[in-house]
């Protein structure tokens, strides 16, 4: 611990808290949201300092694979083998040097002090040496590593390879997009206002411009991030935060007023709310989710948006006997749990949490969801299968296998959606990249038979 005369450098606590969060993800397998909540619990911090902890943890995780490769090269045995927390702290410090928001000497001394705060006083010299060397030699080290995906794009090799196999022409743009901060997209509630008027209010209130996107009539892409509470009319339900690609789900499913609709994996409820908004709230919509904590957000969203046609129900979509009343649905949305490899820019922890071996299990569950929910659909009804994955194994492979084994299932054309999505087997794929949207897959399937 520092002696009485030592005053910790400003911001060292923020680095220490960020390092703990990064370690909880990298070594403990926690999600970044959970890791940040655990790190910040009970620590009295100003909002600005909390935001700094969050920004440091996100940035360090976004570039974690690069830093891990560098540390394995530069530090005997690699700090990971000795101490994950030290590796996490070094990642936070290296990220700060890359982000260059502060003079280098201030970053180095605050990170060294953070090592002491984390009970790593003996590593203070190592932290100091690595960060100073990075200032001198970091750029040359990265250049020498060339196109190795863990260094160039900070992705695990298995994932970079899977993306390159599935999307040979677009892989590089995708990996690069995954490393950028995501745009903030808003869905304007047309029951209350229109995108043009709302964008004018946003500009007047915050100085931030918002632009429309072709093929997404309710969507606006903001030129800079704005806190949710500063979005005009947010509390009154004028707008919601929702990525552009996610805003395709409701129009593709096409639920019409009077229909009975199931959203089988509904939380936090963005797509369910959009379905209701588009049908002027005149749906009988069951918003099902297995996670009651996440489900609470669905009800909150419906209340904020003044939507009465949706009912949040806790239940397992794989076991309809537990919650289904036996009356079939006109429309079903299956926004299936997936690898989330299309939303890495929002959730950089995905790159550490997912393993190659997870994909087969996810695909099996996705197929089961289709099998179990299909009998709940009326003849003539439509099911939209959605994932936020960019891996074909979870998308067209799952859908095609279902079409092959289910004689009443008929693939239904969508789009085209130029600039937003491209054909992928029987469905459509949005890719993270220049369009600024998340990676999403959609497949529309109609149940054969008279309606
Ligand atoms: C991709 S998220 C859904 C996002 C949501 N549709 C939206 O737009 O806000 C997947 C959801 O599926 C839920 N889930 C996972 N397995 C489930 C199951 N067997 N039954 C019902 N929900 C499940 C998860 O709790 C999670 O909330």
Describe the structure.
The protein is an alpha/beta fold. It folds into 3 domains: 12-154, N-utilizing Substance Protein B Homolog, Chain A (Orthogonal Bundle); 185-241, Sun protein, domain 3 (Alpha-Beta Plaits, 2-Layer Sandwich), CATH 3.30.70.1170; 245-447, Rossmann fold (3-Layer(aba) Sandwich). It is built from 18 helices and 13 strands. The chain has helices at 12-26, 32-40, 47-62, 64-74, 79-82, 84-99, 104-117, 124-145, 149-152, 157-166, 171-178, 195-206, 249-253, 270-278, 292-305, 350-353, 358-373, 396-405, and strands at 185-188, 210-213, 216-222, 239-241, 260-263, 284-289, 310-314, 329-335, 377-387, 409-412, 422-424, 427-430, 440-447. The strands form 2 sheets. Strands 5, 6, 7, 8, 9, 10, 11, 12 and 13 form a 9-stranded mixed sheet that branches. It has a 4-stranded antiparallel sheet with strand order 2-3-1-4. Helix 15 links the parallel strand 6 and strand 7. Helix 6 (84-99) packs antiparallel against helix 7 and helix 10 crosses helix 11. The radius of gyration is 24 Å and the shape is globular. The structure holds S-adenosylmethionine. S-adenosylmethionine binds at residues 246, 265-271, 288-291, 294, 316-318, 335, 337.
